[in-house]
Hints:
Blueprint lengths: L2 H34 L10 H10 L1 H21 L4 H7 L3 H12 L6 H18 L13
Amino acid sequence: MRKSSTSHLTTYLLMLAIVILAPLGNVLLGKGMRGIGSAVHWEPSQMPRILEQIFRSGFVWLGILSLLSFFLAYMLVLSRADYSFVQPATAVSYLVVALLGSTLLGERVNALRWLGIGVICLGVLIVGRTPPRTTKEPGHA
């Protein structure tokens, strides 16, 4: 495999990680916090107990780990591809968010929302047909 093919494959694998890890982390945090209860009626005197519940939640910790992994993958992919390619291409995460929200959180996703997600994914396909990097890499002539 040529160097540019390997580089492109690595870039796309990092983007796949981004598309999965960010929504997964947010859904896990949401699931963990739903188990703790609504913050609307929390009294300041309850904060130590609430913080203890947050730090004991496995879902919260898995969410934090997932989001930290997302940030690492995001930094790596931004060193390999243009931001104008990465940001639109990772918008396919909206599909992952809807799938995880409906399966893990029991949320209902209506037809209009699915249609909007489909339009976003179509845009991702269009952006994905362009080269990941249009600028010269630093240090290369």
